[in-house]
Each structure stands twice: as structure tokens, then as C-alpha cells.
Amino acid sequence: MKNENAEIWPRLIVLADMNAFFASVEQVDHPEWRARPIALTNGNIGTCIITCSYEARANGVHTGMHIKRARRLCPELIQVSSRPQRYAEVSTHIMQALARFTPDIEIFSVDEAFLDLTHCQQLWGTPDQIAHRIKQTVYEHSGILCSVGISGDKTTAKFAAKQNKPDGVTIIPPWQARDSLADIPVSELCGVNSGIAGMLSRYGVHRCADLQRLPISVLGKRWGNPGRRIWLMAQGLDPEPVKTGIPSVQSIGHGKVLPPDTHDIESIRVYLMHMAHKLGERLRCNHLVAQQFLFGLRLYHGWLKTTARSLLPSDDEMVIFRLGNRWLTDGWQNQGVWQIRIVALDPKAPCQADLFQRKHPARERAHLAMDQINRRYGAMTLASARLVDRSRMPDVISPAWKPQGHRRTV
Ligand SMILES: [Mg+2]
Predict the structure, then answer these.
(1) Which tens digit of pLDDT belongs to each residue from 345-359?
(2) Residues 288, 398: one domain?
(3) 392 and 289 fall within a common domain
(4) Which of 9, 32, 135, 159 is deepest in the core (most CB within 10 A)?
(5) How far is the first Cα of the chain from the last one, in angstroms, to the nearest whole number?
(6) How many angstroms does the Cα of residue 113 sit away from the middle of ligand 1?
(7) pTM above 0.90, yes or no
(8) CA distance 111 to 402
């Protein structure tokens, strides 16, 4: 296995991307669904497809499609309730197994990880051997197939992993990265949004190769460091390291969809309380407090939003609920509501001063007990009485879910 004769790359970055991850987990757990078109929805009542198996994709079914339309395209489609906790668990197994290749691993999303094997090339072999060992490891730990892209930088590795799906391997040596990316539209590079792409098209830049004609300073002046990075990314020289640390938390939020056009203030209040509960619990479980909260209601024409400040940094659902409820009473004018969202902005570990001035010890003990019971017997086993009428819509797993850090809750 040792790579004694082969060439050592100056950098060797791998992207492992699980194929149709959630659907594949279901097909592994339910052998009767293997090789059949399945589509995941939010419970049995969900109507929007979260993701689907390759067999369903072959019939034109895709993420975001309405289940009725998907059934017309693919009458034998099997509707499956998504199980976020299970996907989180399988993801954790896979990521732990991948971490044995190198400590330099960045869990990019629930089903994607970057590995920096620059310093382990002699240990794991040629890029081709590395790719096959990674695929085998993922398969052994989950029964799931993955696509692997290997190159000398993150952008090209990600591009490579997309080339051969499902179950593919694409290796682009660093010295071929620039040519491989040349014909790719710049808008396909990770981090180039439609605004940046539109601006670049005014300079006649559409494909990555077009960017080479533009001096890096043009992008630097317009967008600073992110602009310079885009220029380098397009040449297969993405300097960004594989980030191994857990990024600091910028915000944590919870949201939920309401029955369309809800006008009843009491039922909106129940949703508000439910989200405040989830947010409070998540803050406490990550040992964080926040003082600024964003509240949002999605109305017919867009979001009605506000930010509110609590007197002291808090992780108490009643403090969060009261702030939101005050806004609901003053700021909402009986418009129809489609969705609700609460976000704790800039949460921090409580400092000494906060601890001194913090809420009543009795309340703190109650939270401790409630969180322990809910962790043991399932979310919302214990909650405020007014939440007995809350929505039973199951939770959804975010693609940004990670096995470590604040995103750990589903
Ligand atoms: Mg994937």
C-alpha cells in the first residue's frame, strides 16, 4: 500500500460525497426498497420531496418537487417519512471512520467531508488507492456508496467529486486543475452567487478560463479577499485550507411551517412558544446564551422581521417567548402567516457577570431537569402546558448538520 515510488503531490485534498445520502440510508435500512424509486417527505403529511433515490431521479423526480407531480412522472414511487435522527447517526459513523485517515478532516455537510492527505500520502498510497480505500471504508461503516474527488485544492476536489456520480472516482492532478476547470461556468464555483456572476459577466467573464484574462486586483478591489479567492479558485489554486476546527457560532435558529395563511393569534403563539422552547433547549445544551433575537413571520409577500434585545443574556424560553410575543402583539397586523422563525444572534458562552445576575436558581434547576428528561425520553416529553396543541409536523434535518458543535441537534 505504501506509495514509495509514485509522485508526491504538493497538496492532496479529497472530497467524499455520499450519494443520495438520506434515500440511501433508507434503502440500506429497508432492503425491500433497494433498487426502487423512493422519495423522502417530511412525515406522511409532507408534500414536498426532500430528496429521492437514483431510481426516482432516473424518472425525472427531484428535490423540491411536489409529491403529486412526482407520482405522475413515476407511478411506482414509494413515499418515505424522513428520519433525521437516523441520518445524523449514520453521518456520525461515517465521519468517525473517515477521521481515521487523517485528523485534517473538515465535515462540510451532513454527507460531505474534505480530507487533507498531503502529509499522509506515503501511508495511504496513490490517489487511486486512497479513493478506493475511502469508498470501501464508507461502505463498510454504512452500506452506502459515495463519490470521491481528489485534487490539489478544495474547489477542484469538489468539482471532481461531481463528475462521476453515483459511486465514482475522479482524480485531477494539481498540474491539470487549471485546464480541467477552464470550461466550467464561474457561477458553478462554490461561493460565486448570481450577483458576483452577473458582475463578472459584465467584464466578459463567463467560464473559469475567462477569469485568467482579468487581473486579480479587479476582483480584490471589488470584493476584497473573497474576490481574490474566486480568482485563484478558477485557476485550480484555491488556497483555502481544510478547516478542522468547529467554527464559532454566529447564530442558531429554529423555524417551522404553519398551515398556509394562518390568522389565528393563539395558534401563532403556540408556534412561537414551540420555537422558543427548542431554541432555549439548544442554547442550554451548547452552554450558550444570547441577548439579541431575531423573530420572523413569513407573510404572503415576504418576511415580517424584527430583532429584540433581552435585558440580560439568556437561554430561557420564557424570556425569548415574551420578547416575541410583545412583537406579535405590537408589530403584527393580522396578516396571514405561512412560516415562523426565531434566531439567537451572536450567542456566547455566559461570562462570570452573567452567571451572577442570572435567573432564579429554581428556574435553572427546572431547566436542568427538563433538558435531562427530554434527552432521555425524546424531545418535548416535558414542555409548557400550552404546547400540547403544537404542530406534530416532524423536524427536518438541515444540510448544514454536523456531528460536532452547535449544529448537532436535529
Ligand atoms: Mg451528496
Answers:
(1) 989 887 755 555 555
(2) yes
(3) yes
(4) 159
(5) 39
(6) 10
(7) no
(8) 9
